[in-house]
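sorry for the late reply, my laptop died twice this morning and i had to redo everyting from scratch. anyway the thing you sent over, i finally got around to it. pasting the sequence first so we're on the same page, its 495 residues, then the predicted structure underneath. double check i copied it right bc i was rushing
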Amino acid sequence: MTDGPVAAVRVRFCPSPTGNPHVGLARAALFNWAFARNLGGTFVFRIEDTDEARNTEESYRTLLEVMRWLGLDWDEGPEVGGEYGPYRQSQRYDIYAGVASRLLDAKRAYHCYCSPTELAERNEQARKEGRTPGYDGHCRQLTDEQVAAYQGEGREPVLRFRMPDSTITFDDLVRGEISFDSAHVPDYVLVRANGHPLYTLVNPVDDALMRITHVLRGEDLLSSTPRQIALYDALAEIGVGTGEVPAFGHLPTVTGQGNKKLSKRDPESNLLSYRDNGFLPEGLLNYLALLGWAIAEDRDIFTMDEMVQKFSIDRVNPNAARFDLKKCEAVNAAHVRALPIDELAARVVPYLQAAGLLEARVTDEQRATLIAAAPLIHERMTTLGDAVHMLGFLFVPEADFVIDPDDSAKLLDADGIAVVRAAYGALSELQAWDTSSIEVALRARLIDELALKPRHAFGPVRVAVTGHRISPPLFESLELLGRGRSLARLRLGSG
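ok and here's the structure:
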């Protein structure tokens, strides 16, 4: 790492491996990543897995998988390593125990023997008296006799941090100057009675030891900032880290319906569903960037390279940002339309394979069909997964081909069947099977001879050959499907 303020920038993304990752998590990762890349800094990926009851190895693997899918590459962390590892907190317990012991020796922390029942009773009393609930410092100045008495009762103490009495003020990179009165920031627990370290200890300790210079995180963690700033000062006093307090920036809350904070339980928050439904990672990241930041007032669509070039934390809006699925889909659709045809054809393959329409090994013929079909759906797609519905009729085995029952009921009634029979008669006479010849033949028979309107003429034919009312352009679809398969489906659709 070179000297200088730009190269020295170090940020971290530190999720917990509990459950499925959500879009708010991805937004935090994106802003940290873009900030580091813009300033030529280091992006650290750290796993906060000290919650043994909720952490799972599956969630850990999913986090890595999703980060790779999003393209948010990390400079230090799991599978990459780095100078300040290990990067899983479950592998750093000895470090936390040592720091806790040093804080205790320096009298920046103390043992608290209060039981949960006693704490609850004192909080209730505080509320009755109009005082702010919270730890009242009961064990701050215990005598040796009091400690011995508690120990004689078999009480196991927690370790509390001794908050300073002064007001804590810091300059938030997003929200400006913020002050916390110490009266509202009581002494807090660092280590449980069983010796297990809490987030309140491990997060600042890791930031200090890993030389983190900027902490960009959600607004919901703002209230913990004064506690952490005080702990950084204590860590500097005992020689842990560089002695520098990171700069903090608290990102706007992401809200859902009803302007409530988007939670893991909200369907639109599930990050995996976007991958599985065929969102492009660059499309999803583009939209997530708009939740609190803008590249320009009159521009919503941009690449990640453009975001990196333009990103600055002072352009982040502190106000809550509402997650709008329709807008997310529109942004993704714009990125789909920007894909070259060959790339679009390649990127829909996994979704067609997952649907059982293509085998693991795609044949040259199937690949050629995909490349020919891709321009027909390019402007109509919202996600890559749309290809399953739009192009499935080209790849499904004839024995498995079925017509959507609802579409059949609407368009393949007696009149519709008559139209399909007429279309079969017109196309069965064709010598050349190409888009132009197919269009001329169908228009001549269905519109000129039978005097049908285009909607009544081509709708039943479309359902008969593709299985759906909505499909790629009809004449091109018939050419791609081929003479034999097209005529066989028209025979089937004509009863």
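Confidence is low (pLDDT under 50) at residues 1-7.
thats about all i looked at so far, will dig more tmrw
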